[in-house]
TrEMBL record:
The species this protein was found in: Planococcus maitriensis
Coiled coil: none
An example molecular function term from Gene Ontology annotations: oxidoreductase activity
Protein name, UniProt field: Dihydropteridine reductase
Gene3D superfamilies on file: Nucleotide-binding domain of ferredoxin-NADP reductase (FNR) module (3.40.50.80), Translation factors (2.40.30.10)
Domain FAD-binding FR-type, first and last residues per copy: 1-107
Amino acid sequence: MHIYWTKINQIIDESPEVKTYLLDLPAGFSWEEGSHTHFAFEGFNAGDKPNRGLIRHMSICTLPHENAIGITTRIKDQCSEFKSILREMKPGDEVAIFKTHSNVPLKREGKNVYLLSSGVGLATFRPLVLEYLSNAESVLSMHSLNVDSSKAYLFQDVFATSDDDNFTVQFADSRAEYYEAVKRFADDADGLFYIVGSDDFLKENIELLRRNGVKREQILLDKREQSIAEFLPVELSV
């Protein structure tokens, strides 16, 4: 396992509770859209065992051509030790990234793509949208649906409807509005449905999609293969 040590270059306040940390790009570090990485602080590997309180899985919200590794996260007043440390960090502070992997790269199968997310889950999808907008080959259209009652919507420079690109964006203020939209998307018998959010959010979306005829193989989750079966048991396939 190679550990890349790098520095925070910039901190962007997206909203009162959400920040984006832009990290310097280390030599030899690469990734693709939909990637997450292990993000850690100094001392995480100082003992016999890694200090898991100093490590988190984080989605990367940028693409390599942007020359920065972007990490967007919500930090509430009452938060974990990890988030408390992160909140106090400044540009120039050093962090570690390692074990980078993409569970949800953009599939180019000649189908419509639906991106379903909650709150800062949108950060995982930003690179997929950028990848699609730069090259829509073998993707019929893309539709982003995000539920966020705070109304402090993220990345509005990227998540904006473009008829020319067959890209539509919807922000829902409530779960009821959100799930009504998901039902309409589920009418697409061949669509690909990407879902990012809490485990409960994933389960609710999967149940709704499956109930409306969406097949197991049409649903893509930001989970490792061994975890996907917990949400999408093979025996439920129709």
